[in-house]
Amino acid sequence: MNSGDLAWLPSNTALLSFEKEGDSNSGVTGWCYPKEPAHVLVLGEIDDTYFQIVYRGQKWAVPKNRVYRS
Q: What is the pTM of this model?
């Protein structure tokens, strides 16, 4: 997926925030598990494992294998 794409996020997907935005090795400082599936905006790739997305007005990291093209 590319920056600006809409993606489908299943419910109960782990969304993570890292101490240093965009650095998955910096440690997790927050997380959430959406109760409902949602469409999200893809901001780009963080690394080989995560996309950065916008969910409810906040930036989150989500595993690439847990989001799907809309």
A: 0.91
